[in-house]
Automatic annotation (TrEMBL):
This is Rhodanese-like domain-containing protein. The keyword Transmembrane applies. Pfam families: Rhodanese (PF00581). Keywords: Membrane, Transmembrane, Transmembrane helix.
């Protein structure tokens, strides 16, 4: 009887330990952000998206599921920071082309037709591309309060089978 209880306790401990290891592996990015002092900044959903102060130095990152939710609800303007030719070859359906290289001339007209409180999601060519971050910083500097970067960019979106388009629209 006592050996059954000990065996059961040992099995429970193994299950809890394995669950903890899976949780740590699954959430390793979030844990790294917490250790770097950046934790708690990524909103879980559009409804819970915090306002980013206009003076913030960098836009906050969003993951694929968060961007897909914003896409589905239409709560955000999705902005492609890649050059126009790359945009024409393929982009997130409904995205606005705002190439970072031309952004100094394109942000003022964009700002005239877009409310400053609108949630903006900027993407480019994936994790190795920094154009979305640069454009996001410029948009924050232009007074937009809720600017986020989709780090996975177009490649992750396309590979997940989400809606894409070609051409200028």
């Amino acid at each position: 009887m006592k050996s059954d209880v000990k065996r059961l306790a040992a099995e429970m401990a193994v299950i809890v330990l394995m669950a903890a290891m899976i949780g740590i592996a699954w959430n390793h990015r979030l844990l790294l952000e917490v250790f770097r002092g950046q934790g708690g900044q990524t909103p879980p959903a559009a409804a819970a998206a915090p306002s980013t102060p206009a003076a913030a130095a960098t836009p906050l990152p969003l993951g694929l599921m968060q961007v897909k939710e914003l896409f589905d609800t239409g709560e955000a303007v999705i902005i492609d920071a890649r050059d126009r030719e790359t945009f024409r070859k393929g982009h997130i359906r409904g995205a606005v082309s705002l190439p970072v290289g031309d952004s100094d001339g394109l942000i003022p007209p964009f700002a005239e037709r877009t409310p400053r409180e609108k949630l903006l999601v900027v993407y480019c060519g994936g994790y190795d591309c920094h154009d979305s971050k640069l454009l996001g910083e410029k948009l924050l500097g232009a007074g937009f309060g809720q600017v986020f970067v989709y780090e996975g960019g177009f490649p992750e979106w396309r590979d997940a089978g989400h809606p894409v388009a070609q051409g200028d629209q």
